[in-house]
Each structure stands twice: as C-alpha cells, then as structure tokens.
Specification:
- The protein has six helices and five strands, in the order βαβαβαβαβαα.
- Helix 1 links the parallel strand 1 and strand 2.
- The protein has a single domain, classed as HUPs (Rossmann fold, 3-Layer(aba) Sandwich).
- The radius of gyration is 16 Å and the shape is globular.
- A five-stranded parallel beta sheet has the order 3-2-1-4-5, with helices on both faces.
- The longest helix has 17 residues, at about 95-110.
- It has helices at about 15-30, 50-60, 75-80, 95-110, 130-135, 150-160; strands at about 5-10, 30-35, 65-70, 85-90, 115-120.
- Coenzyme A binds next to strand 1, helix 1, helix 4 and helix 5.
- Coenzyme A (COA) binds near residues 10, 38, 105, 120 and 128.
C-alpha cells in the first residue's frame, strides 16, 4: 500500500520555510499532498485558489507532490484522499504544544491518521507568513524568504507603491 502524506497549512503566502518542509517530506513519502486549508481564526490575504496556485508554482519541480485545497476538517480531507500521515512543521516550543494538541485531536477523530512533525532548517526557524507580509508591506527585501515563483504576487499585493511623480 502506498503511503500518502499530506502537509497541511494556510500558506498565506507559501515561504521558503514551507518549501523546505515540502521538499524534505516529498523525499520521505512516495506521495505528498499539500493540503491548503483554512484556520477558522484567520482571514487569509490570498484566496484559497490563489494560495493553491502559489504553492503549485513553488513546488512545480517536485513530481510526487500534488496541491489540493480543502474546507472543513483536515481529518475529512485525509479520509477522502487516502491520507494516513499528516506532516506539520514545528518551529518553536509554542508550536510543539499547539501541534501536539492538534495531533491528538485529529487522531481521536480519525485513528488511521498519524502526525509527523518536522523541525524547519535553522535559517527558516523564525519565518512566518504574517512576518513576510509585514516585511513586504514595509519595503524590506523578501527574496531570501519566499520562493522565486511567489515573490511577484507578494510584491503586487503588499509591496509599497512608489509615490507618483507630479
Ligand atoms: N516555515 C515558515 N512558516 C511556517 C512553517 C514553516 N516551516 N510552519 C508553520 N509556519 C507558520 C505559517 O506561515 C503560519 O504563519 P502565520 O500565522 O503568520 O500565518 C503559522 O506558522 C501557522 O501555520 P499554518 O499553516 O497557518 O497552520 P495553522 O496552524 O493555522 O493550520 C490548517 C492551518 C488549515 C492546517 C488547520 O487550521 C486545519 O487543519 N484546519 C482545518 C480545521 C480542522 O481540522 N481543525 C481541527 C484541528 S484539530
């Protein structure tokens, strides 16, 4: 039986930290689905379709990676797509506590689903999508934080507009 893993997240936008986890997980499992979802307590800046498209572009070279959007419970997504491993990135001690809670709850809801937590590469340990959005808005260079395929859309959406000449 082929193990299908899913890396779930909001990806608003996807960063190099996310791509690091996608690449590493794609080497660990025969098939990896990037499950682009919604945390009910967040209001994403990019639509679900836009976030799927951005992840798709960023991971285009990884042939065993598929990108799918979902709404509702991640366990329902897992059941419908034959997913038995959920991949999550954990950056801080706070992340570990939160992820442990979600892993236990998800396994309670769907016992066939186990969660694997990957630590990010150190250079991405403090990266987050909201930080990237803020830095872009304030005019900081983000070339080292997001995939090349994501930067133009990010700048278009959040970049500082140059004042028009009179
Ligand atoms: N590199 C960079 N940033 C990372 C990262 C990494 N490796 N791993 C996590 N992050 C950041 C994200 O950018 C995000 O930053 P932000 O808060 O600034 O936007 C933050 O960590 C949280 O990650 P995110 O992917 O948004 O996860 P989440 O905890 O909000 O979960 C879902 C999103 C969609 C997977 C989750 O809410 C879910 O499963 N929803 C479905 C509903 C459900 O089943 N709920 C019950 C769960 S028990």
């Amino acid at each position: 039986m082929t193990v299908i893993a899913a890396y779930s997240g909001t990806f608003d936008p996807p960063t190099l930290g996310h791509l690091d986890i996608i690449e590493r997980a794609s080497h660990m499992f025969p098939k990896l689905i990037v499950a682009v979802g919604l945390n009910p307590s967040k209001r994403p800046a990019f639509t679900l379709e836009e976030r799927c498209e951005l992840v798709q572009r960023a991971a285009a070279e990884l042939k065993n990676v598929e990108v799918l959007g979902f709404e509702g419970l991640v366990v329902d997504f897992a059941r419908e797509n034959g997913v038995t491993v959920l991949v999550r990135g954990v950056r801080t001690v706070g992340d570990v506590d939160y992820e442990k809670q979600m892993a236990v709850m998800n396994r309670d809801l769907y016992p066939a689903l186990d969660t694997v937590m990957l630590a990010p590469s150190p250079k991405y340990a403090h990266l987050s999508s909201s930080l990237v959005r803020e830095l872009t808005h304030l005019g900081a260079p983000v070339g080292k934080l997001v995939p090349k395929a994501v930067a133009p859309d990010l700048l278009e959406r959040f970049g500082r507009r140059k004042p028009r000449k009179a």
